[in-house]
């Protein structure tokens, strides 16, 4: 205390400040390192690891043609999810089911035609929410009014609505590259069956499906994208046990599926079914995965460490989920004149060639389809 009164006091004070700064720096660095280790990130910050963007896509694609496009989609989804939180899972699932069949081209939205039934009639798509299909068309109508024409593609709406649904339920923000075009044709029921893995699939089969769709998708992407099951409901007929799968799903969680009669369902995430978080992976660690295809991610020795890492760190899962969604959202996209911007997301533009049989989509057929859509409540 005496020294503090001597002529060297300023020097001592400066030295003390410097020492404290070094100490704070060391503590801060140690804290950051601990966070990285807990997240399993090492020195690689996933927030900075942007996947390559397909030629023809960009983050500011509508900057001039419709600068308010992103905010219009976000506002619609935010308000709609407040009224019906289940819509978030419905919109996210639409994007998944679209991209893994024929690519991210909005073909899942097309009604059938004289060439055959559309993708919606294939068994894996029968449980897609009618309210999600309606929401996409409602968003498209709002965009057409605000943008003064058919500017934003239905496939871009799907990608944006999926991201905004994740954000609306507490999930991560990530940038969505835009510029996709819509397909003029829908896939066959067999294409749907082969493109979407069954809920009874094990890890090797799931990885085969991923590799068939894109060489850029790997096991980490598979596990991260499976995290979409942290929100929404699963139909009871899909909860089929396997040799290593005995899900402990509480019967009190069983409920009717909105808009689908008395079809019974369970929350996919028994802890926080309406919140996008990492509890899905905590469930897998506790052997409470909803489907065989989920629980096997933890049962399989090769993929278990990634599941455990996501269960430990929600931030690491959020970062990886954003990266994986951007990669998935670019599967076999159409750009430029490879596709069209549909004026009705449920039907090809009048006069468009039918890619299945080369027939023309007449205005009469268009009228019939529109009438049918209205009667079905889409």
Automatic annotation (TrEMBL):
Disulfide bonds join 66-147, 99-104, 154-345. GO terms for molecular function: heme binding; lactoperoxidase activity; metal ion binding. Keywords: Calcium, Disulfide bond, Glycoprotein, Heme, Hydrogen peroxide, Iron, Metal-binding, Oxidoreductase, Peroxidase, Pyrrolidone carboxylic acid, Secreted, Signal. Residues 1-32 form the signal peptide. The record marks 93 as: Transition state stabilizer. It catalyses: 2 a phenolic donor + H2O2 = 2 a phenolic radical donor + 2 H2O. This is Peroxidase. It comes from Triticum turgidum subsp. durum.
């Amino acid at each position: 205390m005496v020294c503090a009164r001597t002529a060297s006091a300023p020097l001592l004070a400066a030295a003390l400040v410097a020492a404290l700064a070094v100490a704070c720096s060391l503590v801060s660095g140690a804290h950051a390192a601990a966070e990285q280790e807990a997240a399993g990130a090492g020195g690689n910050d996933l927030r900075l690891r942007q996947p390559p963007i397909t030629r023809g896509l960009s983050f500011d694609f509508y900057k001039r043609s419709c600068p308010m496009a992103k905010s219009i989609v976000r506002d619609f989804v935010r308000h709609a999810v407040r009224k019906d939180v289940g819509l978030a899972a419905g919109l996210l699932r639409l994007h998944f089911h679209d991209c893994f069949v024929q690519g991210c081209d909005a073909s899942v939205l097309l009604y059938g035609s004289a060439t055959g039934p559309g993708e919606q009639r294939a068994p894996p798509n029968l449980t897609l929410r009618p309210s999600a299909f309606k929401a996409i068309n409602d968003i498209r109508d709002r965009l057409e009014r605000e943008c003064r024409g058919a500017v934003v593609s239905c496939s871009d709406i799907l990608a944006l609505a999926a991201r905004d649904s994740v954000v609306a339920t507490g999930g991560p923000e990530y940038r969505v590259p835009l510029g996709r075009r819509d397909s003029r044709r829908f896939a066959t029921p067999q294409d749907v069956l082969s493109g979407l893995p069954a809920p009874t699939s094990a890890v090797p089969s799931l990885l085969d499906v991923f590799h068939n769709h894109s060489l850029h998708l790997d096991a980490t992407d598979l596990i991260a994208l499976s995290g979409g099951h942290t929100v929404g409901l699963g139909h009871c007929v899909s909860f089929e046990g396997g040799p290593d799968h005995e899900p402990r799903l509480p019967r009190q969680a069983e409920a009717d599926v909105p808009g689908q009669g008395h079809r019974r369902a369970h929350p996919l995430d028994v802890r926080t079914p309406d919140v996008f978080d990492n509890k899905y992976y905590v469930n897998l660690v506790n052997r409470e995965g909803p489907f065989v295809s989920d629980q096997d991610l933890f049962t399989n020795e090769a993929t278990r460490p990634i599941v455990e890492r996501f269960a430990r760190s929600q931030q690491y899962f959020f970062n990886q989920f954003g990266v994986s969604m951007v990669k998935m959202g670019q599967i076999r996209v159409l750009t430029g004149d490879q596709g069209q911007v549909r004026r009705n997301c449920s039907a090809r533009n009048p006069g468009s060639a039918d890619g299945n049989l080369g027939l023309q989509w007449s205005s009469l057929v268009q009228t019939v389809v529109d009438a049918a859509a209205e009667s079905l409540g889409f």
